[in-house]
Structure formats: C-alpha cells, structure tokens
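Q: Hi! First time asking for a complex rather than a single chain. Here are the components, and I think there are two in total. Is that enough to go on?
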Amino acid sequence: MNTVKIALNGKTYQAEEKEPVLKVARREDVDIPALCYHEGLDSYGACRLCLVEVTGGGRPGMTTSCTLAATEGLEVQTDSSEIAKIRKGLLELYLAQAPDADYIKELAAQYGIKKSRFARSREPGAPVQKCVLCGLCVRICNEAIGASVISFISRGPETEVNSPYLEPSPKCIGCTACADVCPTDVIQITDKDGIRMVETWSDTQVAMKKCSMCGAYCAPEPLMDTVYRGVPDLDEEVRELCIKCRRRLKIRKFSQMTK
Amino acid sequence: MKLSNLDYLKQVKQQGRDKMFPGKPRIAVGYASCGIAAGADKVYTAFEAEIKRRKLDVLLTKVGCIGYCTVEPLVNVSMPDVPLVIYHNVAEDDVPGILDGIAAANLSRSKALCRIESWDHITRGNIVQYGKGFTDITPYAQVPFFSKQHKIVLRNAGLINPEDIEEYMAVGGFSALHSALTTMTPEQIIDEVLAAGLRGRGGAGFPTGQKWKFARNAKGDTKYIICNADEGDPGAYMNRNEMESDPCMLIEGMIIGAYAIGAGQGIIYIREEYPLAIKRLQHAIKQMQDYGFLGRNIFNSGFDFDISLVKGAGAFVCGEETALIASIEGFPGRSRSRPPFPAEKGLYTQPTNINNVETWCNIPVIVSRGGGWFVQTGTEKSKGTKVLSLVGKISQAGLVEIAFGTPIKALLYDIGGGGLEGRQIKAVQTGGPSGGCIPSRYFESAVDYESLAKLGSIMGSGGVVVVDEDTCMVDTARYFVDFTKEESCGKCAPCREGLQHMLDILTRICEGEGTLQDIEVLNELAPLIKTASLCGLGQSAPNPVMTTLRYFRNEYEDHIKENRCRAGACANLYLAPCENACPIHMNIPAYLSLLKEDKIAEAYASILQDNPLPATTGRVCHHPCQIRCRRNEVDDTVSTREVHRFVADYMSENGHKQPKSATRTLKKTGKKIAIVGAGPAGLTAAYYLAKLGHSVTVYDSYPEAGGMLAWGIPDFRLPREVLNREIDFIKKAGVVFKFGTTIGKDKSLKTLAKANHAVFLAIGAHKEMSLQVKGEDLQGVLSGVTFLRDVNLGKDVSTGDKTVVIGGGNVAMDAARVAKRLGSDVTIVYRREKKDMPAEEEEISQAEEEGIPIMTMAAPERILGRKGAVRGLVVAKCEPGDYDQSGRRRPIPGKDTVTIECDTVISAIGQRPDSDFIGRCGIDLQRDGTVEVNPFTLETNIDKVYAGGDLVTGPDTVSGSMGYGKRFAQIIDARLMPQERTHKIMKRFEYSNEVSLEPRGGDRNLMPMVAPEARRGNFDEVTRRYELPVAQVEVTRCLRCDVKE
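A: Yes, that's all I need. Here is the structure of the assembled complex.
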C-alpha cells in the first residue's frame, strides 16, 4: 500500500492511498460529523454531514469526505462557515425527522440548534421518532453479516427500514449488529424466555440456545450455527455449552488431567 | 442474410427506395403514439377499407411523426413526379376526398398542410426528389411551424416507415456505420465526435467525445454502453418520438459508439410506459440482427456487438445514471455517489458509457458528414440542434428541432404561433422538474446550455412548457416539488427531508396560510438541497422554486400578503374565476344567483356593496371576468357585465331608490382624508371611506366629477346622466367635492398632507403622448383626449371634412366615432396588425359598423401642411418585424408610403399622467410621469401620501383604477383604526348554491344595439339594456364555479 500526504485544514497528514478522507480525519482527531459512516463497511455518502471542501489537488468543490479518496497532495477544508451552514441546515432537517434521537440533539446543539424550524407538531403519545435512515443497519446486515433481514422500503419521504412485507423475518440470526451500529439507538431488542425479540423488525423472533449443562439461555441458535460453521473442528460437547460452562468444563478437564 | 459487402448494401437500399417510391400512389399515415391518440389508427383503417372497396392500386403504409402535434392526424400522400403532400387534421370523413384526388391525379387541396418537392436526408448524397407541381399548396419551408426549425435528428421522422429497416437504408441509413467500421479506427471516431463538439442531450451537456474517451481508456474485461431512454419529465416526449419515428438511427449511433469505446454489449434502458417505442426498437433490433448489423463480425470488421432492451418501471430517479445502473442490475433505483464514475466502474463494476437517446441519434450524421460540418450549426459552445417538446399554453404545440442559439421568442412566436387562444405568454419552464421558469422579459435569450443556465434554468432533456396568466407560478413550483419529492429515492436527507418541507411550505402559501418568513426559509432551503444532495435529482429539484422566487416573487407575496392568486389556480384563495379576475372583486355569482331567484333588489344591493358605479362599469368595463369565465369552454361567456348594467338601469328606471345599505355610513371617526382626482379611483376610494365614517374631500381640476369617465368617454358609450346618477349616490354618502382645484398649483400637497390623516393621489393619465413626426404643430392636429374632453365639455369643436385618427386604443376608437358623428369622413391608422389593437373588440367592430375604415400596418411618417393647416398625412407601410415582450410583432416601416388627404389629424397613441404639478411637490416621478408606490401599501415617497390608478399604472382600465381606490380605502382604514372594520359595511347575502349538472340557458344573449344607420349624427347610446326575461335567462348560464362542495 502506498502512503500519500494530504492536507486537512492546512495541516499535513499521512494516509494510505485511496483511503477515505473521513477515516484519516477520525484517526487524526479532526472532527467531522457523520451518521452513515462505518470503517467496516463501504462508504455510502448518504447522510451528507461529512461534506468537506476540496481546495486543491483534486476536483474542487463540496463532496462527502467518506467517499473522497486520499490522493497525493489533496487539500481539504473540513470546517468553513459555508460547511458549517450546510451542516446546520442538515441537522435542522434531522432534528425534525428524529426529534427523539439523543445523538442528533447533541450534534445539533454543537452547531447551535436547539429547535428545528421544520419540526412537525406531534400528538402526545405519538410513536418515538429516532431513525435518520442512515442505512448502517441495512448495510451491516447485508454486507457484513450476510443475513439480509432488512432493507429500505418505499422511497422519498416514505422511506423506512424493516423486514420484507413488515413480517417477522426467518433470516435473522439475532446477532444485534444492527442495534450496535445504530447511531440513534432506534433498534429495540429484548431477550425473554428463550426468545430474542427484535421488535423494530416487525417483532422478528430468534430462538436462544439452552446450555446443556446449566440450562441458561446463552446465545441465539442461528448465530451460534453461523459461528460454528466457521470452526468445524470444535468439540461436539463444547458446542452445547454456554461460555461459563465451557470454562467450567475446561477447568474440570484440566484438573482431571493434572490429577 | 448478412450484409457484408457494399454492393449488397446498395441493393437493399434500392429495395427501400422502391418502397418509398413504389411507382404508384403511396399513402403514409403518421403513426406515432401522438398520432394514434389523435385518431391515426381510425384513419388508417378507413383508408384500408376504402382502398379495398375501390380496388385501388395504392401503397398504404405507416410513418412516424413529423412533429406538428396540434394538427394530427397527419397523412402523407405521394405520387410519381408530383410533390409529397401532407394533410393535417385528417378524419375518417376526409379519406374519400383524398382518394378521389389520387384517382384524379390531382391531389385534394382540402386540409393540405404543405407540399414537399425534395427532402435532404443529410447523410451524404441522400436528397430525395418527389416532384414539382401543386404550387398553390404552401411549400413545407413556408409553414410557420416548420420554417424556423432545423432538422438534423428528426430528418427522417414522419417520412419513412419506422418499422422497415430498408426505408431507413433508403435515406442513407447504415452508410455511416459501414464507413466507421471499415475505414475508421475507434480513435478517429472519437476525434470526430470531439471535433463536432457534441454535448450530452440528456440535460447536463457533458462533452460526449470526452466521455467516450474515458470509457475507451478505462481498464476492464467487458465494457458496456447504455442508452438512457428513461424519459420522464412531465410534458417532455422528445426521446419517445425519436425512437418511435426512427429507431434505427439510435441503434446505428450506438453501434458506432460501441466500436469507438470497445464495448461488446449495449443496453437500451427504456421506460415501460413507451410500448410503441419498445415494439419498434425490438423490431429494429431483430431486423438488424438478421442483416448482420448486430451480432458477430459486423461488416467483416471483426467487431462483435449486440443490444438488449431493459424496461424500467417508471421511476424518475432511474434517469440518473448510477440509479439507472442499479436498476439494470436488479437493485432498487437509488443513486450512489460519484466518483467512481460509470466510465471507470459502471454496470456490474465494468467500464460503462451512458448517453441519452438523442445523443446517440446525433452520431451517424457526425460520422457521415464530419465534425466540421456539424459545428456549422449552433453557437460557440453548443453545437448542432436540440429537439424540444413545445407544450402547454401555446397555439401550435409539438416536437420541434431548432439550432442551438435560436432565440426563445422565435421558438414561441414563430414556431409555436404565440400563446393559446391569443393569450399572452408569461413564462416558459424548461428542463422539467429540474429546470426553471424563464419570464417573458428574457425571451430574447437564446436556447443553448449556457444561456439557459445563466437564467437559472437548464437545457434539460428538452421539455418546454409554456405558461400564461392563468398559470400560478407558486402553484407551478409546488407541482414540480411535489413531483420530485414523490420521485426522490430517499437515500440522502436534503432531498428526502428537504423537499418534503419545501412542499409543505409551498402548499401552505398556495392555501393562503403562508408567511413572509416562509419565503426566507425557502431561500435558505433551496441552496441547501442544491449543494448537499447526493445526485442530480436533488441537486436540481429546487430550481423551479429558485427561479420562481427570483422572477415571480410578487406572486409569492400576493399569496402571502393579500391572500390572492391572480392566476386563479390556488382554489382556496378565490371565490370564482370571474371574481378573482375582477379588479374590485365583485361577487358575481351572488348577483347572478339573486337575479335568477327573482330577488332583483337584493341583487342590486349586492352589486352596490362591491361597486359604487355599476351602471357605468356595466357599460365600459373591459370585463376581465368574461375572459376568465369557464362558460367559455362550453360556448361563450356569461354576460356578467351586461347583467349588472341591467340590474342598475332597471332599478333606477323603475324608481327604486338606492338601497339604504348603500348610503348608510358607520359612526364618524373624526379622521380626515383628502383625495386628489375625482376619477374612478378617487370616487371609489371616497365612497368606501365615507361609508366607513371618515370625512372625505375630493379635489379635482375640472368642474365636475368623473375624470376620464366624464371627459374621455363619449355619451354614446356612457351617457352623462348615467354617470351623474351614480356620482350623486357617492355625494349622498357624505363625500365633499372641491372642483377647479389643482393640487400643486392652487393648493400645495404639503398643506393637504398636514390637514389630513392621509392623501390619495389619483389624478389619472390625461396627457396625450406626442407623435414625434414632422407637422405636428400644424393647425388641425388634435390630441385624442383633448378632442374628446372638449366635445364632452360642450365646446364647439369642429373637425374638417376628412379626419385621420392615429392609434389603436379605446381613445382612438372613441375619437374616430365622435368625429364621424360630427360629420367628418374618418379613417383610423394603426401601425400594427388588427389583432394587436388594444381597444376592446366591440369598440373596434362598432367603429367599423359605423363606416370607419381601419388601415393597419401603417406608421405615420409626416403630416403635410398648406398655409399652416393640415392637408394630408403620409404613412409608411409596415412589415411585421421581430416579436416584442408582449408577443406582438414590432412594425417596421418600409419604403412604400401612402398619402391620405385630410384636414384633421387626431393623435391618440397613448396617454401619460399629467403629473408635473405633483412632481414639483416632491413626489418622485418615473420617466413616463407615473408614480412608483409600494405595491402592497400604496405608499409614495412622502409620508401620509398614497397613490393609485392610472397615475401608478399608466393608462389602464376603469375597473383597474377602481380596484386601487377600493384597496386604498381598506389599507387606510386598517392604518387609522384600531381594528378591522371593512366587514361592517359588507353584508352576506343568502342565495341558492344549487348547481345543475348540465350547462343551462342556451346561447349567450347579446345586448340589443341601435342599428349603425340610426347612430349617424347623434350621440344617443348605442347599446340597450336587456329586457328582464332575457336577463333572467342569461343568469342561468352561470356554471357556479363558486360552489365548491
């Protein structure tokens, strides 16, 4: 991999060639807000918050830093009054879209916005609005996990994320990666009575595995199957145990050996 | 049967020629979707049956569309050695007549649009000759719709059978492909396209040659080319016709492009909603595969290429290239960010080149004639031609092809024939939902990429939607934002969320709920969406809002500040089209309904509440209500003006006093208001202010009230006693008049402003404009308004034996008719065409009835004199010149002159305010003598001083001036008083809201008129009021647009 030099706000940094500028900025502690970026996934360029301005060494103009590849001599401005104005405008839109999302409120406050002019009136008891449609959940489920449980439904302002036909999905392996990457804490998952319930995805249910030793529910069955597929040599006996019991078993075996 | 050698190619070409020139009559019906919609299928079937019945030896076939949609169905008829004749508006009934003509070897002239003797199909050496003759039929090049067009892409459309590849070859098809594959290298082809300066016709205008170069140089196992045929702008159908009328041209262009780029596979991404285009393309692909133009080793060149069709489900965003690629790959149509550009990483991650249909269509001719030939057409940066779909409020709609650089006005007025039904064009919307609205004052601008961008719009794919005064620009912006919001893919927030908020705001404004803050928010939101959106859809979606805000901000403000939609498009903001058009907003449906219900006294009360001068306006109003009346769409307008005249006359003739409600005033407020000018604006303001309890004094230089109504309109149109009767009512309401006082001369404006709470300047426009010709100072040269005033004042005015009146407005008509009545022989001279005359139609026709000839296209050049007196007028004959902003052609005086013998010349070419005195008082005057006011508050530059009427607008209409008076009363009352009170002088009338499902009342009832002979030598009124039963029938004709539920 070639190393290149790029300038962020006039200061030079080392970067891998073609590495997203946003990734470099994050590494070097240059603050660029973003909702739809994740290092483990392909850049998506949808939230538009990471817009920066290329001022030299490339096609000049505004572009998203997550899709901007580092090239030798690239000069980028990450924070100007123009950029701040756009981010402010975007955050006002997000605040109206997801008035209950703490992270959005925090970001908006950073940019001096307390209230969005676009806020819609809501009846008391109206459903919680947190999703900003950044697509991280969809992408992690499809691209990284490979389960494809959820996708975007409809288009334009009607867009939402859910399982097909708004029915519980049989494909979910209960990995909770979607909830882990969600920047606004939208996805509700609860474990109860041997069932992992993903309420947000049309009450998708995943059965939990019972430890054959202690009887506790340890992990979703399909998740464990997926994991075990990667480790075919694993002891049959171990497969049926929860982590604690595995440790116990290991200690027991070890002590037996030393005896 | 692969065509690999040139001789064989020539042989097939000859077969095609034999089909176009079968040695016997050929009837070709224009058979594209537009033609079929107009009935071409029925016409075709009728020809088929009739030819069979008559056992005629005639070739019946189908062609595409030549573009003249307004006059479809079109039928081409050709016979050996005579010109091809195109028939328009052909119906089944016309079939026998056309066949008779063919049988008689003398083609029918009925519905013949034009003749074509020869046609240049442009690809080298392919001029086809039809024949000469039929010289009485207009040649193609002289049909206005065609004359300013420049056909390159559409050169075959409407002349060849799109379902027969041999006819395409007959006019030079595939010769470019042959020479490209057998004599040129891919680089040479790209160089030729670069030399042609061809730019993408899909909208963005990126140089095609460069795009090809990127794709050629990109590394990849397989390369693709794609034709973007996902045409989806509302009102745009360029690509549809290109594919339906000449599918082979598109495919030939693609094969050449594929060879240049090195692509092995081509895809045409076409919307499912174009079934005929799909069918013809599939057919063409099949034929081309059979002939070996597609497939392996084309023309033995070793080049392999094939094309498949992918049908899109009609998502607008799939016209964006990355979304289009996603759609072909089977994913939802959502855009992704570029780079990487498709040339690098496109379809299935391979290098891909995407061009619009029309871009591909330009390729064969560029290869055939060379880039050097191509650049001869167009402007410096926009080369070649553009196909546009000219639609909306235009008289001749259709698909036109113009050279880049053609001015917008040539497109609209020469080709399009001007606004629909002669109405004035307000703006054009180019580029569909991504484009902008261009107002008429920029119609001088050229149609090309740069000029349109400079105006804030875009070239786009070629949709040109014409809008007139009936179109609300806020509503137009709302329509387009609603469209883009619906079609947004939803991936990025600015487009998805921003457009929704934008739509909410626009909807609010259209419903009369908007605030000025909303305009500011739109002004912030629009650039945010433009800069922050991911793809072209979002980046261009705010354009309609931005351009309408830039050019039509007044319309936004009208909606917000005045709750008014002048176009009558925003249903919440008006009662009915007639009421909305009326400058004083009379509740027309109310008095029509009350009269229908036999409540004539109430009808009168309702009329008087809205209009203090009903018998007057009932005679001389320019009736915008009737122009907007929806009954026009059934037969003719409801005679609203005549009905309120009837009510006013009938009530007064039958001794009914004015209803109490009309003279009842509110408690005295102690506020004093001075009004300068006792014309329609001043009188109306005075009446309402007096009713509201204010003390009103009206000053006027003349000895009586009425202004132009009294001094400018002759008795035979408005009898003085009728006007005086109505002025008396106003006096009864407590208005004090001070005549013979000129403000600025006899009394200063300062004193007036000091002594009053407000001053309203409404002095009208009484000063005649100068002719600026030699001899104007001769004895016998009179000014129209002075002439009419002197007659009305009872002065002894003599005209000689022969009078020439110069001008085309109401003053000119009145002056001519007065002079005629005084015994002179009168001619009217007007410099433009008759249809351009600003006078009312009925005034013109009445003048003509009275024996006054009108000489049009004649400009006065000099007045001849003898011993200081007029002896004649020399006029220059004019030729119609360029179109001005109003869509009328400027008269250009030529060398030919005519001398009209006369002893009196009356000049009535327009007036201006006689405002010198008030100008000296410190009021800022415009160059034309008018006063600029704040359009919403009517304030002038001096505190407490307001202005309205002709003084502000320049010479306008009676009701227009009254509208100013009424608004002034409302504005000033709201300013001086703590709370809204105008509703206290307005009563609600009860009337039926029943609407019949069928139009009733039959034809329009015209007012009785005195016969022209009986009008001679007297000033008796020419029109008579309705009789009661007639009026009561006339009112039933109202369609009751005010009833909304």
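A: The longest strand of chain B covers residues 869-883. Let me know if you'd like any chain examined more closely.
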